[in-house]
Amino acid sequence: MTGHQSRSEFLALMAAASATVAIAIDAMLPAFSEVREHFDLPSTSSEVALIITVFMAGLGIGQIFYGPLADRFGRKPVFVAGLLLYVVAGFATTLAPSLETLLVGRFLWGLGAAGPRVVAQAMLRDRFRGDELARAMAVILAIFLVVPALAPAIGEAVLRLGSWRYTFAVGPVFGALVAVWSTRVSESLDVAHRRPIDLRSVGRAVIEVFRTPSALGNTIALTMLIAAFLPYLGSSERIYEEVYGRGSQFFLWFGATAAVMAVFTLGSSRLVRAIGSERATKLTLAVVAVVALVYLTGTIASDGTPSFAFFYIGTTLLVSLHTALTPLLTSRALHDVGHIAGTAASTIGAISFVGGSLLSPIVDSAISTTVTPFAVGYFVFSVVAAVGAIAADRFSDTPAPVEAA
């Protein structure tokens, strides 16, 4: 398997590397109110949500570069380089003297986070094939899904020990541990199989994604889902505090929602095996649209402040359905561009993350003392996502895939 690692240790390391993204987001959410206070921002300010948005933008842009770099220089050095940028940018963010400096650090932090995320997938493909790869991915997913449920609680515990800066340090400390651990992994790409960097291939992939209906339509759908989901990450703490007065309980409710998201994610693969990815995607999109409509209607009917039970159940259903849809739409977006799957995957990831990051502040900035902007945003983005996915099917030249996502 590797020079020093057992199979189980290797899979645990890949899961830890993939979890660096969740740690860099979820652990700091309980500290947002203190960040606003430290930088003299109003309690209803949406500027703190940019901490999530710019990180996701860096994560999206970084995906374009790490794949070609890993093909040229090998997996391990690029994997470690991404982790080192993650750690350095994370600690720099922790020490930021101003919000502007903090946001620059978060963008670089996102660029670093893209490294272990992308290269871990390549290392898995190097070592496993077929059913063995599927089983390996299932193990990693099971471990990975635990992180969003635990990270806010960890962040809350650290916050009680000190300032918000301590909470922000959770990510880089975790990244440093993963970086040290990664010294035990061996290189998985032989020198003979390394390829020179060809920026033209990236350009061709972008053009092909835009020219291929199934890729373009599903990429639009993914972008809309990310645009709907990011305000949940960036503004949910503010909603819990300002709208429902439950800020002290935020980490508990957020962790519970993450657990439900894990169940939906695992359940989506079973649904695909039962009815195929085309029907599973259409069914899930239809359920999202109905839930989003009910959520919007109930929110408007209650003047923007529905009961906490209504808010929590509706929000949990929407974000959980989001996690179930993401792998379905991604696999379908790649279906007709399989001949450039690696570069296309990076391109689709970059477009959807950056596009979603650009759109989500529209919702974040509108959220103040009601849930209405969040409900409107989720409904509108969900409808556009459904239109994109349906158009992808209608204008696709080949049948949609039916295998498990």
Give a nutshell description of this structure.
This protein is mainly α and 405 residues long. The protein contains 16 helices and no strands.
What are the secondary-structure elements, in order, as H or E? HHHHHHHHHHHHHHHH
- The secondary structure category is mainly alpha
> What is the CATH class of the largest domain?
Mainly Alpha
Principal-axis shape: globular
Beta-strand percentage? Answer: under 5%
Number of domain modules: 2
Integer-rounded radius of gyration: 20 Å
CATH level-3 fold name of the largest domain? Growth Hormone, Chain: A
Our count of helices gives 16
Residue stretches low in confidence (pLDDT < 50, at least 5 long) are 399-405
The major sheet is characterized as:
none
Q: Give average pLDDT, whole number.
A: 86
Give helix % range.
over 70%
Give the CATH H-level superfamily of the largest domain. MFS general substrate transporter like domains
From the 3D coordinates, which CATH architecture of the largest domain would you assign? Up-down Bundle
**Strand segment count:** 0
Distance N to C terminus = 26 Å
Give an account of the 3D structure:
- By secondary structure, the chain is mostly helical.
- The chain folds into 2 domains: 1-183, Growth Hormone, Chain: A, CATH 1.20.1250.20; 198-399, Growth Hormone, Chain: A, CATH 1.20.1250.
- Helix content is 78%, strand content 0%.
- It is built from 16 helices and no strands.
- It is globular and about 65 Å long.
